[in-house]
Amino acid sequence: DVTALVLPAAGLAGSISPALAAPALATLASIDLSGNAFSGGYPASFNDRGALPALESLRLARNKLTQAPNIGDAGCVNLVQLFLGGNELSVFPAWRFAKLQALYMHDNAYNASVPSNFNLVAPPSATVLMMPQRAGASLCGGLPGVAGATAPKWARLLDGQTVPLTSADLP
Predict the structure, then answer these.
(1) Residue closest to 57 by CA, chosen among 107, 103, 19
(2) Nearest alpha carbon to residue 71 among 84, 62, 85, 61
(3) Quick check: 70 pLDDT over 70?
(4) Which residue has the higher pLDDT, 7 or 53?
(5) Which of 101, 107, 127, 157 is deepest in the core (most CB within 10 A)?
(6) Interatomic CA distance for residues 157 and 113, integer angstroms
(7) Contact, 85 vs 101, CB < 8 A?
């Protein structure tokens, strides 16, 4: 059984193949396609209920992706890590992950308020890295649930370190 697909900075380009969510790859626990030149969105097969049921880590950072995968509880029910930093994402997806512990969405093109229900994306023990965004983009408003014990930990990169993010950090 194939449990990992690790091809970071391999010079891959174009769209992500729908074959990654094929039943033959249902045992994949880790996908690392970071640092390539994938563009656009994701195959519809990623959205199918039960797609990639063993997947725990999805690393798609530093590509040219404009759309986040619609995976949430519909497909990747065991996802623990999702790294999407360094892409061209600008729309917040309607995710909900029961087991997620790390969500990195920094260095994208988000130019809006964080949706009020975005604190439901991950359990309270998770870290959601949102800042900084790329030049010309700016998150604004407040952070949902930042004062509540049921919200994930919001964070930002500062001098290479992950530090807590507060509503005061957003204009």
Answers:
(1) 103
(2) 84
(3) yes
(4) 7
(5) 107
(6) 19
(7) no
pLDDT, tens digit, 9 for 90 and up, residues 87-141 = 999 988 878 888 889 889 889 998 877 877 777 788 888 888 887 888 888 777 6
Distance CA(45)–CA(52), nearest Å, equals 10
> What tens digit of pLDDT does each residue of 16-47 get?
888 887 888 889 999 999 999 999 887 777 77
Query: Quick one: tokens of 89?
Result: 């994402």
Secondary structure of 48-81 as H, E, C letters: CCCCCCCCCEEECCCCEECCCCCCHHHCCCCCCE
**First-to-final CA distance of the chain:** 49
Sign, CA torsion 81/84/90/91: negative
List helix spans (H) across the chain. none
The pTM of the full predicted model, rounded to 2 decimals, is 0.87
Amino acid at 89: L
Q: Which residues contact 18 (CB under 8 A, 6 or more apart)?
A: 43, 44, 45, 46
- Cβ contact 155:163 at 8 Å: yes
Q: Which amino acid is at 162?
A: T
Cα 123 from Cα 138, distance rounded (Å): 25
